[in-house]
Amino acid sequence: KEWAARFKQWYQRRVREEDGVEGVFINGTSGESLSLTTEERKELAVAWKKAVDKTGKLKLIVHVGSTSVETARDLASHSESLGVQGISIIPPCFHKPANADAMVLFTKAVAEAAPKTPMIIYHFPIITGVHSYLLRDVFTKGKPVIPTLAGAKFTHTDLLDMERCIHHPLGPFSIFSGYDQALLPGFSIGAVSTIGISYNILASRYQRIIDLFKKGDIVAASKEQEILNKWYEVAERYGLIPAHKALLRLKGLDLGPVRLPLIDLTDAQLQSFLSELKPLEIFHDLKLNPKHY
Hints:
Blueprint: H1 2-14, E1 23-26, H2 38-55, E2 59-63, H3 69-82, E3 86-89, H4 100-111, E4 119-123, H5 125-128, H6 135-142, E5 149-154, H7 159-166, E6 174-177, H8 183-188, E7 193-194, H9 199-215, H10 218-237, H11 240-250, H12 267-277, H13 283-286
Parallel strand pairs: 1-2, 2-3, 3-4, 4-5, 5-6, 6-7
Helix pairs in contact: 1-2, 2-3, 3-4, 4-6, 9-10
């Protein structure tokens, strides 16, 4: 609760027009949702709903996915009772759906617990290990039986499947580009927006890619993506979630440790991480406080 309160207050203070932040996706990958208890996930949803309401402009999507369909239904119902703008699910990642039909049945069961709230599928095969279907087939089979099926967070490198979802005949579907390092390719084929871990600390820089793309300056947008990918590559080597939490701590926002099996950076690893970041162009944009080093 204390860490949730700290983060929501910090987020409220830092959301600026130039950042381009339009909403918050909570209890996802960087939120370590599957490492939290159901009650903790509900507490976070309540705290964030209060926070976004105070901004008067931010939208809230709550990830409710679980290996248990009943837990996912409970979280979906709870989120709808709060009046959030959307819910999202990953596929079950222990007993996995064998095909698109199985994923449709799982999604339908969860969506029925929140019949008034748009459903966003969180498509992240490299993490979930679910490679048994193309997402466009889930839309084809799912939309006729899931009225609230609204789109996807597409965190995958199969841009053909992503494009087919964007231009699906049963759409329109809202497809969010899910890879920070492929923001520009996602927008180039029609993504409506993007959801990613890096936007917690570098939103204004990533917004430049979108602005340049919309102006038609693809060369400059590509250069900006290249610059940001260098930062992402460094962070990835140290573990994206522990690395981002360490940087937030250096910005004055201590959210506590990561949950096992993730492991926080040691002091030596943090200093090594910072030494690799300092030569990069984006280092000053991180706005780290030296007193927290």
